Amino acid sequence: MRTRPAARAGQYAALLAYLVFLAFPFVWLVSTAFKPATELAGLHPTWIPRDPTLANFRQAFDEQPLLRAALNSLLTASAAALVAVAVATPTAYVMARHRGALARAATGWVVVSQAFPFVLLIIPLFLVLKNLRLIDSLPGLVLVYVVWSLPFALWMLTGYVRAVPAELEEAAAVDGAGRLRTLVSVTAPLLAPGIAATALFAFVTAWNEFFFALVLLKTPEQQTLPVLLTRFIGAEGVADLGPLAAAAFLATLPSLLVFALIQRRITGSLLAGAVKG
């Protein structure tokens, strides 16, 4: 009994240290974004800007087309999330409800595919997109993001489908509902938290992705926001720190906003399910 308060204090201390570790880069990014150039060049950096300014944000928008790049990222990330969820939901339902050799092989493929590095995938993907004439296009990038996020989306949704009691689907079948009607009317509403979490994962993954966008997009008008951020680094590798921090701060806001909105839906759905249960 004497060790319980100490153990709890240690858990809180570890959690606090972890939160500080996670928050440090973002806090420093925000602080840098609002510091003037003279303060950024100082030898004694501070957490809070002494003379906060918006000059870095104005300079970032003047130097680079951030709004166009943000729109490209928004379109590709949203389309990739919607397509990934639309494909993964019925597929995960089949994988979860049919425990045959094919389902086990598909599950094994989902697990193994996560170990593939980007470099192994970029060449075959480039050749496929070249044959489809989708190189240097946002639809081609959306296709790549769907392929990349689909295995993990299947893995997530399969677990959610298995958590839905099969008795509910059997009752719907007794009432005359087919497989598609059961999936749409019975199973899908119960999968709302899982679908929201999967869509969030696919959106954030596509929004923050850099490597595929760098290789596949060559036209400046097609480039996404992560690729555009590299333009704030000069030819000699010297970063324009103030505008870069300001642009990077703006680039993180959509992910945080989407996560905050969907997190409420996930939490509310889980609590509602617990109360009904």
TrEMBL record:
A Pfam family: BPD_transp_1
Keyword terms of this UniProt record: Cell membrane, Membrane, Transmembrane, Transmembrane helix, Transport
Domain ABC transmembrane type-1 per the UniProt entry, residue ranges: 70-262
InterPro entries for the chain: BP-dep_ABC_trans_perm, MetI-like, MetI-like_sf
Gene3D superfamilies, per database record: MetI-like
Topology of the protein relative to the lipid bilayer: Multi-pass membrane protein
Cell location: Cell membrane
Residue ranges crossing the lipid bilayer per the database entry: 12-30, 74-96, 108-129, 141-161, 182-207, 241-262
Family note: Belongs to the binding-protein-dependent transport system permease family.
Protein name from the UniProt record: Carbohydrate ABC transporter permease
